[in-house]
Design goal:
Layout (H helix, E strand, L loop, with lengths): L11 H15 L4 H17 L15 H13 L4 H20 L26 H13 L7 H14 L3 H5 L6 E2 L4 E5 L5 E5 L2 H13 L20 H16 L6 H14 L4 H8 L4 H22 L5
Helix pairs in contact: 1-2, 2-4, 5-6, 5-9, 6-8, 6-10, 10-12, 11-12
């Protein structure tokens, strides 16, 4: 978003983009969404702003211009997933402007969405996850906060939390007696998540050692006694995964995929998993069905005498 001092020289399109991004902040959109949409809409504004010329007024942006912009994106050899996200950002902007009466209709809805290849998430096996977490618990890396780090891994896998949900946990969100977590997901939607045995034990041990910082209610603290950030947790996960398993590609969200896939493989109901994950749509959860089926076929291909 632009600083207040720049508002006077803003074009109307730039002003609408800024108002829309501020609206996303008010709605509680995730930091990841804000960062991506800010970059995508700034690029859209730059495309519509030739050297020494102001961009067109929002009502003057027609379907032909939007399709030319899409052709320009294709010409940059971006993958379909990236183009879909950029189109989603522009559609959301036009929906906002239509609602505010700035444009008569949302023409961006008429732009064809590129088909994205169906990609299944790579999922760690239960053995890989447990070996990694056991390695964290062994405390062989001479880390400054090994008890905290183990609790992070146990909650990522044991509770299936998004990294933003883990970062956002406050002390008041932990029901230590009943072993539940109150989790704030996307759009600030709250849900209750059970705290399984290993995760509960690891969290109890960490909370027993956590520094008392009266002004900070976050569960997980950094070395300064402030809330640990998503970037900080990602670095911790990458450090351990690289050192203990030799795989720097492991990221926090991978434990969420593993959590869902392993629950499904052990017979958990798909709708129960949807509730645990905080998915708004069952279709989002159903991708784990495909992962499990793929894993079963791999086992079949390797083990069944008639597979080949």
């Amino acid at each position: 978003m632009l600083a207040a001092g720049e508002a006077k020289s803003m074009s109307e399109l730039a002003r609408q983009i800024d108002l829309y991004l501020r609206e996303l902040v008010r709605q509680g959109s995730s930091a990841h969404t804000l960062e991506a949409y800010t970059a995508d809409l700034r690029q859209f504004l730059e495309y519509l702003s030739p050297p020494d010329l102001a961009p067109p007024e929002p009502p003057a942006i027609d379907l032909l211009l939007l399709r030319e912009w899409m052709a320009w994106l294709y010409g940059k050899h971006l993958d379909a997933v990236t183009i879909r996200r950029k189109l989603a950002a522009v559609r959301s902007l036009f929906r906002f402007m239509s609602r505010e009466g700035v444009v008569p209709v949302n023409l961006a809805r008429l732009v064809r969405t590129p088909k994205a290849p169906r990609k299944l998430p790579a999922v760690m096996s239960p053995e890989q996850v447990n070996t990694l977490i056991d390695g964290v618990a062994a405390d062989t890396l001479d880390r400054p906060f090994p008890v905290r780090d183990r609790a992070i891994f146990e909650l990522l896998y044991g509770c299936g939390l998004r990294i933003s949900e883990l970062v956002g946990l406050n002390l008041e969100d932990v029901d230590r007696a009943e072993r539940w977590l109150r989790v704030r997901g996307k759009g600030r939607k709250e849900r209750q998540v059970p705290l399984p045995g290993r995760a509960s034990t690891a969290l109890e041990r960490y909370l027993g050692e956590r520094p008392v910082v009266r002004a900070e209610m976050a569960v997980f603290l950094n070395y300064l006694g402030a809330r640990l950030t998503a970037r900080g947790i990602s670095k911790i996960v990458k450090l351990y995964a690289t050192a203990l398993s030799g795989d720097p590609s492991v990221h926090p969200h991978g434990f969420r995929h593993a959590y869902a896939t392993h629950l499904l493989a052990d017979g958990a109901d798909l709708r129960a998993i949807q509730e645990l994950l905080g998915h708004a749509r069952l279709s989002t959860t159903q991708k784990y069905t495909q992962v499990s089926l793929t894993s079963l076929m791999d086992v079949y291909d390797k083990a069944h005498p008639k597979a080949h």
